[in-house]
Amino acid sequence: MPCSSRSSNSCRMQLEHDVRRLEQLLEEERYMRSVLENALEHAAVKLSDLSLLPNEAQELLSHILTLETTITRLEEEFVSLHFQLIQERNERRLAEYRLKQVPLEALPLCSHPQPKIIDTTDPLSDTLVVQQEAATKLPRQVAVIGLSNQPNLLSEEIVRCMRNIFLSLAGSCKSASVSDIMPQQSTPSPTGNYSISPFWSSSEPPAISSSHVESPQVDLQCHSDLLASENSFDPYKSRDKLSWADIGNYGFVNELSWMSTGKEQLEFAAEALGQFRLLVEQLGRVNPIHLDGEERLAFWINIYNALMMHAYLAYGVPRGDMKLFSLMQKAAYTVGGHSFSASCIEYVILKMKLPIHRSQMSLLLALQKLKVSDEQKKSSIMKPEPLAAFALSCGMYSSPAVKIYTARNVREELESAQRDFMRASVGVSKKGKLLIPKLLHFFARGVVDDANLPAWVTHFLPPRQAAFVEHCVSQRRQRFLVSRAFGVLPFENHFRYLFFPDKLPC
Predict the structure, then answer these.
(1) What backbone torsions phi and psi does residue 372 show, to the nearest 5 degrees?
(2) What is the pTM of this model?
(3) b (16+ CB within 10 A) / e for 50-87
(4) Dihedrals phi, psi of 463, to nearest 5 degrees
(5) Distance (Å, rounded) from C-alpha 382 to C-alpha 297?
(6) For 74, which of 143, 324, 428, 460 is 20 to 30 Å away at the CA?
């Protein structure tokens, strides 16, 4: 072999060796970077991986992890203390006002029943159910001490108490203050409970108007008994949607889309706020790890709903998803020695999916990783329960109604919540198009494809409504030759709460 040829082969072998060595070094660098990123993000890192790092890097990581743990704990304590401070400040302001401005004999500005202490020694007693006699009356008082060993009963009382506070703030001084502040006339709901609805504007027309009669697609005369009159209550009224005459259990909800936290209105809730504080304090002695699957699910749904309402009282109503996300991070309860924020409960403890039907909120959650300790994760439910989407209310117009969930019947109650929400929110446009809320469309993606969604929806409607929807969908498909015969209503994020009563009529 010529000398030049041997030299060329030698150089080539050397270059190949150098390339392999550099590739190996590059792979090692990539691997080390991955280990460092996982360590810094608190992901699972094996001890064998850490041993590959230089001693200085291992020591630095140890210090960083220690500092991160300390900072997280201090942040949780700060948020909890800040939340308690606001609560105590509001209660002190109430107490000072009552002592300085109002004689004890004249404290009630409206007629209220005398407080009554109810015996709760029997854990199965039905006497803990607090009936809201009217939106203008304060709720009767219940014994609130000693419920920490009955976590589910405690969570039920917490959400019940906060619901009654909201109703008191909305309806207590309706004759004096609401009419002065709100230009629109308030109207009673079908149950006679006081309903304040300033957000129904001209952009949301009545269910049936003269324009509907001109539409050739929907024959109103043949279906007049199915469709609502102009003044009927529709909890999810929207443009172009025809309202049902019968909306099922949502016909019995209390609606609250405005409230005042001024001194006069807070007077009516002062006593209930003191009771509420005693209930919340007992959460610190609850260990949710000891709850079984049904108990844990019902417990956290109730706590989430109460916490969101409490957050609105403490921080005010946020404008937009960005501020709502900030509020959900700040608002937290101490449960079993750990601080659980509203966002932590919804997306970690209850394992709800990112709300892609609310793009801004979904983006914020994706960008900002929720800080949750391993101990906190032990309190989460074992597997996701998609039906919780119809139980969790963040106080928005498109949110489902709030009701109290029990450990014994939580699965049946969630199925009922889905059916009730669909019956109240699904409708048909004046042109015969099926209309479904964005929340329902987001949920349905994990159940059925768009082509079969109308048929799936009809299974949850009463027979005659289902037949009407099927007829409208069939007509649209024949007329326009399209498979998607429905429209999606946007998620409306202005403030509004719907509250179910403790017991529904049979």
Answers:
(1) -135, 130
(2) 0.67
(3) beebeeeeeeebeeeeeeeeeeeeeebeebbeebbebb
(4) -50, -45
(5) 9
(6) 324
